[in-house]
């Protein structure tokens, strides 16, 4: 590479980094409500077997997904309700056809139901993408009685804003709530960051998505407890935030429900831990600094 070509590449990289920073804006002077030291979101991605069907996985793998809809979601809701915690259930639209009773139960108990695409994927075709989002909004509203205001997806920000969404929870570029603009610097949404380090599927899903890697094995829940406790403790010390990404077909298994419960009991012993839904946290961010 010539010196000129190298200099051009460096300039392009700098421009890309600056552009990214300009579109991902911290919530200036963000603070929690009085008495709150950190927020912890528990989110349940209610995928059941949808992602596994799309990947054409064998019946044995799909059965694991079915467990999430038939049993896992109920167990997790019961556990959270026993501790007075409201969770956010990110739900593909099709799940409304498959497990409406679980969703009605979750909504009736005050948990938030949010969008997670129609069939767990965003079509590249714009008209079809719009069709999927509108179908999902209608399906969720029919089952829960309320329009969703949040999503965990790669849906177009312009479409999301037009339909009244206020937040997305899909980036890993930060660790506290932030604002994200589209590539034109418009259609701003609150982003509630997540990360694979606090995603149950990374630790408890053998052969995830057909992976043959030796790292895709089942971990001891105690080992995951230690990792997640240290993630929590680090954030607790700095007035931070954690957004747990859990899946009922993964975390609905007995030993993992038990591990999550132990985690919650330990967190609740400390003063100032707030367990809002994602919508509550997004609205709190907006109340601090409107879009
Ligand atoms: Zn998902």
UniProtKB/TrEMBL annotation:
Gene3D superfamilies: Glycoside hydrolase/deacetylase (3.20.20.370). Residues 74-152 form the NodB homology domain. One of its GO terms (biological process) is carbohydrate metabolic process. Belongs to the polysaccharide deacetylase family. Is involved in generating a small heat-stable compound (Nod), an acylated oligomer of N-acetylglucosamine, that stimulates mitosis in various plant protoplasts. It comes from the Bacteria. GO terms for molecular function: hydrolase activity, acting on carbon-nitrogen (but not peptide) bonds. This is Chitooligosaccharide deacetylase. It comes from Bradyrhizobium hipponense. InterPro entries: Glyco_hydro/deAcase_b/a-brl, NODB_dom. Pfam families: Polysacc_deac_1 (PF01522).
């Amino acid at each position: 590479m010539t010196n000129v070509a190298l200099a051009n590449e460096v300039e392009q990289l700098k421009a890309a980094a600056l552009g990214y920073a300009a579109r991902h804006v911290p919530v200036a002077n963000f603070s929690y409500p009085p008495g709150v030291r950190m927020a912890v979101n528990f989110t349940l991605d209610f995928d059941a077997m949808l992602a596994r069907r799309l990947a054409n996985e064998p019946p044995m793998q799909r059965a694991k997904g079915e467990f999430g809809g038939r049993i896992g979601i109920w167990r997790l809701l019961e556990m959270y309700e026993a501790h007075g915690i409201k969770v956010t259930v990110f739900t593909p639209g099709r799940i409304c056809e498959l497990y409406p009773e679980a969703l009605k139960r979750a909504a009736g108990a005050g948990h938030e139901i949010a969008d997670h695409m129609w069939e767990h994927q965003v079509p590249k075709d714009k008209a079809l993408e719009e069709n999927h989002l509108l179908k999902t909004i209608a399906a969720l509203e029919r089952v829960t009685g309320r329009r969703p205001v949040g999503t965990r997806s790669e849906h177009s920000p312009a479409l999301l804003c037009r339909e009244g969404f206020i937040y997305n929870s899909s980036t890993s570029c930060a660790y506290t709530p932030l604002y994200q603009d589209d590539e034109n610097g418009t259609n701003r949404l609150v982003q509630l960051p997540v990360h694979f380090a606090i995603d149950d599927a990374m630790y408890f899903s053998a052969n995830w998505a057909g992976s043959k890697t030796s790292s895709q094995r089942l971990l001891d829940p105690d080992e995951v407890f230690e990792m997640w406790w240290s993630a929590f403790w680090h954030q607790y010390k700095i007035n931070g935030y954690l957004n747990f990404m859990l899946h009922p077909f993964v975390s609905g298994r007995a030993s993992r429900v038990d591990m999550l419960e132990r985690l919650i009991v330990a967190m609740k012993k400390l003063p100032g831990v707030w367990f809002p839904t994602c919508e509550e946290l997004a609205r709190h961010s907006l109340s601090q600094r409107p879009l």
